[in-house]
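Notebook entry, structure prediction.
Reason for the run: the old model in the group folder had no record of what sequence produced it. Starting over properly, with the input documented here first.
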Amino acid sequence: MSVNKDIDHEGIVELVSENMAKVLINSQSACAACHAKGACSAADQEEKVMMVPVNGQQVFPGERVKVLISKRTGLRAVAFGYVYPFLMLMLTLIVCTSIGLSELSAGLIALFSLLPYYLTIYLLRDKIGNSFTFKLVKTNFDL
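New structure, fully documented this time:
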């Protein structure tokens, strides 16, 4: 039994320029694939566009491909997006309440403490973005 170390998403190549492909990925929650999604307002579906290096492969607009990212890299993205800000928020909230601030003040300070974090993430977006590498794999089937 082999363990897959990649997360993959199927997509359609929208545009190819130089060594990059613009891939449209249709991201959907589990309930979006449900047969009763028309009667349920919980179903959500979102299209995402990614720029992925083609690495010498010849791909064409309209072609179905898979975009791969390692699970480890995916977990690092989750940590940057959710875990670190949550820990920062909770730590700030605990410190503020332990020094005697009111709950309202502690809550507001905790929320505003996330501004420097997200500002830093925004300013370093190119450097952080370059550390996440995606792979493009052609699929052998068309729908």
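Summary: The helical segments are 71-98, 103-112, 114-123, 125-130.
The old model has been moved to the deprecated folder.
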